[in-house]
Task: inverse folding
């Protein structure tokens, strides 16, 4: 039994050692395969990332513009049918359209509506008459609208009519990039322009009260403006916020 056993043991030992060699070979082979597949994984990932960057490039370049569009919606300029330079056609018969330049190369489209009780007198009057009327002692309201469309939007005309009916002048402004105003909207320039417009209104209204009315996005501009003016030592006569926001989602 032993004699027969030994070769068996021996051959078993041989078998074991050859199978372990085989196993080692297989392991080395597997390791090579694993490394190769890892290598190709990274090559593929790298190529994919390069492709993705290449495809994303134009989008990334456009990103600030996309964000701006998400915040301000200034490209939505309905109603398109109306000419912003003819406010009388929009039921604002005591309103003149003007363009002011807060800085070189930037033009802001603004409507100046006089108090309601002057509507008859206002018929056929030119910009000089409107300009003079700003000094009549009635309060002047700078109307900073919300984030879509233009100063011609129906609900904005409604607000202007109400403010005019209670005896105020209204300066209804389209921010940079909105309506027929040039430039691009950013938080900084919107504030800068409103601060500039407040100073302009103070200078041209002969010391009348100048109030800032901000609706929605405009409420942010209004508060920014009031803070900026306070920092400059100017106290705003009033800030009125309509459906203001405390944060943007
Ligand atoms: C002109 O506007 C005023 C003020 O909104 C209004 O009372 C008046 O009826 C309008 N007149 C005409 C002819 O549309």
Result:
């Amino acid at each position: 039994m032993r004699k027969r056993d030994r070769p068996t043991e021996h051959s078993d030992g041989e078998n074991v050692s050859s199978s372990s060699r085989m196993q080692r070979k297989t392991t080395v082979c597997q390791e090579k395969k694993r490394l190769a597949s890892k290598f190709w994984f990274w090559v593929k990932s790298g190529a994919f990332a390069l492709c993705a960057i290449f495809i994303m490039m134009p989008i990334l370049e456009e990103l600030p513009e996309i964000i701006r569009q998400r915040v301000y919606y200034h490209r939505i300029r309905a109603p398109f049918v109306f000419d912003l330079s003819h406010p009388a056609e929009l039921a604002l018969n005591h309103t003149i359209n003007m363009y002011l330049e807060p800085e070189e190369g930037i033009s802001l489209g603004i409507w100046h509506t006089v108090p309601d009780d002057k509507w008859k007198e206002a018929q056929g009057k030119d910009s000089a008459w409107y300009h003079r009327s700003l000094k009549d002692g009635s309060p002047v309201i700078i109307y900073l609208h919300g984030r879509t469309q233009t100063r011609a939007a129906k609900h904005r005309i409604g607000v202007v009519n109400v403010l005019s009916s209670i005896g105020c002048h209204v300066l209804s402004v389209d921010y940079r990039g909105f309506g027929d105003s040039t430039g691009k909207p950013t938080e900084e320039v919107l504030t800068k322009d409103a601060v500039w417009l407040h100073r302009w209104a103070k200078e041209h209204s002969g010391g009348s009260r100048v109030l800032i009315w901000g609706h929605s996005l405009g409420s942010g501009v209004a508060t920014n403006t009031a803070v900026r003016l306070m920092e400059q030592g100017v106290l705003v006569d009033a800030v009125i916020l309509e459906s203001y926001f405390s944060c943007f989602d």
